[in-house]
Amino acid sequence: MTNRPHTPFLDNVSCPADIRRMNDAAIASLADDVRAEVVSAVSETGGHLGSSLGVVELTVAIHAVFDTPRDKLVFDVGHQCYPHKVLTGRRDRIRTLRQEGGLSGFTKRSESEYDPFGAAHSSTSISAALGFTVGRDMGMPTGDAIAVIGDGSISAGMAYEAMNNAGAEGRRLFVILNDNEMSIAPPVGAMSKYLSGLYASPMGELHKMAEGFEAALPGPLRDHARRARNLVTGMQTGGSGTLFEELGFSYIGPIDGHDMNQLLPVLRAARTRATGPVLIHVCTTKGKGYAPAEDSADCGHGVSKFNVATGAQAKSLPNAPSYTKVFGTALTTEAQLDPTIVAVSAAMPSGTGVDIMGARFKNRVFDVGIAEQHGVTFAAGMAASGLKPFCAIYSTFLQRGYDQIVHDVALQNLPVRFAIDRAGLVGADGPTHAGAFDIGFMAALPNMVVMAAGDELELMHMVRTAAAYDGGPIAFRYPRGEGVGLELPERGELIEIGKGRIVQEGSDVAILSFGAHLSECRKAAEKLAAQGVSTTIADARFAKPLDRALIRQLLRNHKALITVEQGAKGGFGAMVLHDLANDGLLDGRCQVRTMTLPDRYIDHASPDAMYADAGLTAVDIAATAMQAAGIEMKRVGALV
Length: 640
Fold this sequence. Notes:
The protein folds into three domains: 10-295, Rossmann fold (3-Layer(aba) Sandwich), CATH 3.40.50.970; 323-477, Rossmann fold, CATH 3.40.50.970; 501-629, Rossmann fold. The chain is 40% helix and 14% strand. It has 26 helices and 17 strands. The strands form three sheets. The chain has a seven-stranded mixed beta sheet with strand order 7-6-8-9-11-10-15, sandwiched between helices. Strands 1-2-3-5-4 form a five-stranded parallel beta sheet, sandwiched between helices. Strands 12-14-13-16-17 form a five-stranded mixed beta sheet, with helices on both faces.
């Protein structure tokens, strides 16, 4: 039995209305209980620990001051929402976090009325909050909107587009900047004395409150606060105002996001007096209150199950290197041989593996922050200059830069190399991070070459092939997780563009795999062999250009041809069908079937369970092949 923390204050909270009946001392104690509960729960489930611990006091304070769920609390990204879930009627399920059938690791509208807007990608909160604000002003049954956005997320262009619009609209809106890159810890006395009088003071205008905030501080502390204030945007515009003020926001801060004596009076005063858009700058510490998280390099950003007493994470021994590591190592090898190779990442250098190259060639790896649109066009500019950029972005994050891929890369036929990590279903992060659509949206573009690695060796070959290809843009996709355990050479080999390969020869049915489901196709062939069915397995390698000769060979020599991919409808299988239909080749004796992800989002679970839900297991593939070929299944030795 897991030892649960002692949480007397949290035990009396079933919903945020209970918090609003507490006095301030009890609210501060409640925050301690919530932190203990989050640490305990995540130790059993894994997840985004550091970001959630950083906003414990802030989350409690927001629910204590604002009338949620009538007031709409919109978290940016949402990976910091665990304290919010504990406080909003989901404590009894918090230990199902990110598990099959359990709570999402992000905010999710279908999960609770306290999650008014779903998230998982960054920089959407201010736009959504402004939408709620307009809804309120047009008579919809909603109150204030509060967007909580981190200093990383606010660096993205969409956040500034939203602030520009919000400033122009001039509507009452609250944006809380959760700044965990800056530390400000003034003496409790000086700050709290001023803040404690805010709510009761007769000041009517919010900007006077903000001015008084700094003026009340001692000289050195006032200078520090003003410096922190200007550092938020990295610039100072128009005298002493911040960029936020230039955009039309009233600015308050910076304040200590772990001190209830600061948070509560500021939020109460802002809620009482605001007439237009307000930005409250709150400084926090990722992993706050749990030493192992605070002391780790990533502040406990994403953790597996762990021992609460020691912080030691339970890690299974890998059977093979991850695809991400194989990519990063292969890219570094190519970079050693070609000084024109550069790499671009959008705030995920370690997540995409380009940090491996960065350790060797620091000046040739560029992390642009959470700015995928900029990253793609930045890479296009480097390609136009003669460099060889590898743009390494997760599949779902690359969606955010699609216009730039179309207009700035493909239309100009610039040789940007797109390394698309997290292709296919990804497990606990669920549908928000599932790389389902890149095959279709990349293959739709003229000039684009689209590859998918069947295993980690093929990934090495594709890195070298992409490095050598200068005919235009080229993309290769690969999944999250470990490879299949193949022995890897020092360097990959060149692949002929548009050329697939036969993996196994057979005579009855053919399985044409595109990407990392190749291993599942092998298992399907074994199940078919047990039924007396001879199977050819082919690795397409390319969705564009297709290996038309290989496809026609498979069509001629088999009773059925099954395409398999870890992507949505409209991808590789659709390309094959379109090609065959145009040549009138779908009318012969060979039956063609396509196997893709279904036309729906698949909830978080283990990757194996998600692919079972999608109908893409070895059993599903084998059954589809037999049905298409008109082969009766033997009663003895079923596929399962």
